[in-house]
Amino acid sequence: MNTGKVLLGILAGVAAGALLGILFAPEKGSDTRRKISKKGEDYVEEIKEKFNEFVDNISDKFENVKEEVKEEIREEVK
Q1: What are phi and psi of 38, to 5 degrees?
Q2: Least crowded by CB within 10 Å, which of 8, 26, 38, 59?
Q3: Rounded to whole angstroms, how far apart are CA atoms 52 and 40?
């Protein structure tokens, strides 16, 4: 199974659970809206961090493969 899909599913489940917990809590509407907004901001930050880690990981792998190809070319030219 694709790791990205699993991660997205977990994040969606956590978000849905947090949202339902907040909506069913007996608080004023303004407090609930503030909490929902804060949770949304937290999730956006978490997703940004995960995306940046993913991009960094892919970039590192690309650089490694590029170096390996250059080395193979050097070996073939000799």
Answers
A1: -65, -45
A2: 26
A3: 18
- Between CA 78 and CA 29 the distance in angstroms is 73
Structure tokens at 9: 């599913």
Tokens for 19, please give them.
Answer: 């949202």
pLDDT in tens, 21-65: 777 777 787 887 888 788 888 888 888 898 899 899 999 999 999
When divided into structural domains, the chain yields a total of: 1
What local confidence, expressed as pLDDT, does residue 7 receive? Answer: 76
Burial of 75 from C-beta contacts in 10 A (0-12 / 13-18 / 19+): exposed
Host domain of residue 21: 3-77
Task: State the pTM of this model.
Answer: 0.51
Q: Name the DSSP letter for residue 27.
A: -
Cα 15 from Cα 46, distance rounded (Å): 11
Residue type at 31 in one-letter notation: D
